[in-house]
Structures are given as structure tokens and as C-alpha cells.
Amino acid sequence: MIFTKSSPIISSVIKCRILREIRKQILIPKMSSAPDGGWGWVVVAAVTISNLALLPLQQSFGLVFKSRFTELGMTATEMSFIFSLTAAIMGSLGLINGPLMKKFSFRTVAHLGTTVIFFGICLTAFADSLGTIVAAYCIFIAIGQSMMYSAISLALNTYFCKKRSVAMGLTITLSGLGPIVMPQLIVRLLNNYGTTGTILILAAIALHSFIGASLLRPLDTNGKISDVEQVPVASGDPEARSRDIETKNKIETADDSSKSSAPAALEEVKLIVNLRGDESKDKKFDTVVVEDNLLPFSALEESKMKSESILSKISASLDLDLLRNNHFVVIVLGMGITLVSEYNFNSMIPLILSELANLTPSEVATVMSVQASADISGRLCVPLITQKFGWSSMNLYAVSLLGSILGRSVLASWSSSYMVIIAASLLIGIAKGTKAVFQALVVPDNVPLAKLPAASGLLMICNGVLSITLGPLIGLVHDKTHSYVTSLHFTSALSLSCILLWIGERVYNSSRKTSKEPSQDGKNCEEN
Q1: What is the pLDDT of residues 185-214, one digit of tens each?
Q2: Domain hosting residue 289, numbered range
Q3: What are phi and psi for residue 274, nearest 5 degrees?
Q4: Which of 221, 228, 265, 331 could form a Cys-Cys staple with 261, CB 3.0–4.6 A?
């Protein structure tokens, strides 16, 4: 790149911007390729341990709190509000988690998240009103889960690229063992220790997540395992490091001189920049020449530059440029809508089965265990089968939504037969397992690894906004119609809207001929 004087002067503002861009290229090296194995399989086990320890209360929330909700006389709208507010708070932290993951390692964030969840569960055990449940469960546990989700997601996607789907499928499959056993265990605990004692035992189980969090060892910029909590910026090669420091000093000297030079002073800054970091031993360099008649900043130029600098820093730290990508926006919006419907449905399954089919707690636990078994089958078998067809994660996610819609329709229409309920739970479980695998891959398959924390944060923000707006409507529909049948159809309509939205985007892109390349699923390994 060569910048020369093509007009009387080039503004010193432009020069400073050029210098900043050069500094970014020098001082922020790209992460090399993911290990795709090795310690990555320990990370898979670590994430599994964390999920098994932390998720039982969330997965069996309706079963644990059913009697307490009845004692408090809470309506379906209030119950749905609790679920929706939890998701909304988790989502509201999405933009914060991006910068947090840049500042600290995912192991540090995972430790902090586990601590917050533990205290939240302990406080929830003594919650005896809507306000205290909101304070303990919706705030503390939601904050901790938001941190944990960002940490384990980044850890898996850092260690795996080409084998990402295998690692994600294995993690989600092993994590699915919890919902098979926990409903039966929770029913026994409730009979012996009551709601408060059961939740305190679940808090003790949650502490085991510290083991998993401690195994999330960070990688350095060369893709090697490191116990240093913050990834160093400089290269591991001493010669390369000295070149980077020398170049950095040149930039800083040039930048400082540009602020103090006389108006007529003519300065040429020549920089030798390593644009490829440490990707190979054979270094390739680009020459950057900046030649300018330097002028003093006016007050207006300086204020504009400061304001633009602040806004650009905020935008860069949060990676808000992702919102300029229409494809990403459509993905996030569609997944946000479906996550609201699926999350509310899964949380209210015990309440739905108790009202529609008059099942006892033991029968409800059996249905939930059957669904969890089918869930594991879906997580384990469906990805292996569909891998031969080469379908994208978005397509398979949409297929799983169709299966979930069909299962809910069967449950709403023939809830009087116990065998039909078992069959519907099998279908819903397979669809849920398939969706769990591919919903974790949709965003990573469409976003570079460097922007993944921010992309996940934006998805969580969307989930939070939609949860607090659409979530309570599910409970409100029940209270107005006095039946969960209408609520089931409403959740199915929400899931169907995601499929229609994605189809509409493809039709629109096809008609406008703006989509010139095939799907980018699975191609981000070359970019990371």
C-alpha cells in the first residue's frame, strides 16, 4: 500500500486514521488454526461436566416449583413472565459478554459464572414470593448462565474448527444424560426434603461446575495451550517480537510528531509492516508510505475526531458492524423467535402435562425422561445421518423445528391418551436434540471466530428483547382461553415464523440475484 501526495495536502486526520489501522494490523495478530483435537477433547468433557452440574434446576424448573407456584396462587402469565425475564436478562448481557471475553480468558469467565449461579440457586431455595423468585432466579442465575454460555461456546469453537460439529454434537449428547436421570431424582428429593431442601442439594451439585471450568485452558495466538489468563499480544518468536516492537515505536514516533510539526513541515513516514503475523516462518512484508504536509488541528477537526474515535471504539469493541449483514440479522431474528417459544414450552411441560392429561408427578417425570432419552438419540444419531447429505446447519435447524411443531400439535390434539403422549414426547425429544446440536452451529458457521463472542452476544440481546415481549404472551393466551391447547398452537406458530422468515430471505436474495455465492457454512475455518 502506498499513499502519496495526490493533492496539495492530505489531512492529518486521515493520516492518523491510517496509522491506527496499521497499528491494529501489527499489534493484533490472528489466531492460528484450531487444534481440532488434543486438549480439545478434555474441553468437551469439561463443558459436559459444567452442563450436567448447572442445568438441572433450569431443565426441571416447572417440576421443582409446581407445588410452590400452587401455594402462591401464581397464574400462567406470571410463570411465563419468570421464564421470559430470565431469558431477557441473559440476553441483555450479550453485548457485555463480548468485551468481557476479550478482556479475560474463558476459564476466568466460567469460574465467575459458576460462582454467581451457585449463590443464585441458594437464594432461590428460600424465595417465597414472585419478587424474591425474580430477584434470585431471574437475576443471579440468569447472569451466571449468560457468562457460562459465552465461555463454553468460545472455548469449544476455539479448540475445534473442522471437527466442530463432532465436538458440539458429543458435548450436547453427553449433556443430555442429565434430563434422563434428574426428573426421577428430583421427584424423590421433593418427597423427602421438600422444595427448599431439593434446591439446596441442586446448589451443591452446581458447585461441581468448578471442575469443568478449571479444565478450560486458554490458547495463545499460536494455537498452543497456555495457563496465562490473558493472551499476550506480542509474538512468541523473539525476532518477530523485536520487529513488532520496533515498528510500534516507529508508529508512535510518527504519530506524536504529526501533532507537533509545523504547518509547512513535510514528513515522510515509511513503515515496514508484517501483515501476516506468525502464520509462517517466511515473513512477507508490505511497505506503507505516508507523505503529507502536516497541518495543525483545528478545534472542530479535533472534536470530530474525538467523537468519531469514541464511537468507533464502541462499535469495534462490540463488533456492531455485524448488524450491517442482512443475512446475520435474519438468522438472529429467526433463532430469537424460536428460542422464545421452545424455551417457554420446555419450561412449562410439567404444568402442561398436569393440566391437559391430569398426570401425577411420577408420570410427568417418566414422560420427561422418555423425552430426554429421545433427545439424546436425536443429538447422537441425526447429525451422523445428515452429515452424508451435506445439509447446512440452518436447513437442519429448520427441519428440527418442523418436528417440534408436529409433536406439539399431536400433544394438543390427543392429550387424553397416555400412549399418544409418550409418542409425542419421543418426537419432540428427537426434534429437540437435533435442534440443540444445530442451533449451536448456525452462528459459528456463518460468522468468523474473531467475531463469534460479539455475534453470540447480539443473539442473546435479540433473545432477551423477544423473550420479554413475546414470552408473557404465551402465558396470557392460556389465562384468556383457560387451556394450554391454544398456548401450544401459539408456540408452534412462533416456531413456524422462523422457517417462513428464512425461506423469505432466500427467495428475496434469489429474485434480486444478490446471493452470488453458495452458503458459507463450514467455510469459516479458512478465515479464522
Answers
A1: 888 888 888 888 999 999 999 999 999 888
A2: 2-30+232-303
A3: -85, 100
A4: 265
Q: Name residue, grid cell 436425536.
A: 378
* Same domain flag for 297 and 413: no
161's CB contacts (< 8 A; 6+ apart) are 33, 34, 36, 449, 524, 525, 528
Note whether 16 and 56 are same-domain residues: no
CA separation for the pair 327, 329 (Å, rounded): 5
Distance CA 19, CA 16 (A): 5
- 177 and 284 share a domain? no
Decide if 182 contacts 55 (C-beta within 8 A). Answer: no
Give the Å distances, CA to CA, from 447 to 22, 102, 164, 453. 24, 17, 14, 10
267 close to 261: Cβ distance less than 8 angstroms = yes
Burial 447-485, CB ≥16 within 10 A → b, else e:
bbbbbbbbbbbbbbbbbbbbbbebbbbbbbbbeeeeebb
In this structure, are strands 285-293 and 2-3 parallel, antiparallel, or unpaired? parallel
Q: Are 406 and 432 in contact (CB under 8 A)?
A: no
* 450: its cell numbers: 474473531
Whether pTM > 0.85 for this model: the answer is no
Give alpha helix (H) positions in 160-224: 164-175, 177-206, 209-214
Tell me how long the chain is. Answer: 528
- Secondary structure (DSSP) of 390-412: T--HHHHHHHHHHHHHHHHHHHH
Q: pLDDT tens across 290-333, in order? A: 444 444 444 445 555 555 566 666 566 556 677 777 888 888 88
Angle at 397 between CA 394 and CA 400, to 5 degrees: 155
Rounded-to-integer distance, Cα 20 and Cα 24, Å: 6
Q: How many CA atoms lie within 13 A of 200 on its CB side?
A: 7
Q: Which of 303, 336, 359 is the last residue of a domain?
A: 303
d(CA 509, CA 377): 35
* Cα torsion through 523, 286, 21, 14, rounded to 10: -130
Q: What CA–CA distance (Å, rounded) separates 29 from 33?
A: 12
Q: Are residues 224 and 237 in the same domain?
A: no
What are 437-493's pLDDT values in tens digits?
Answer: 788 788 888 777 777 777 777 887 787 788 888 878 887 887 888 778 888 888 889
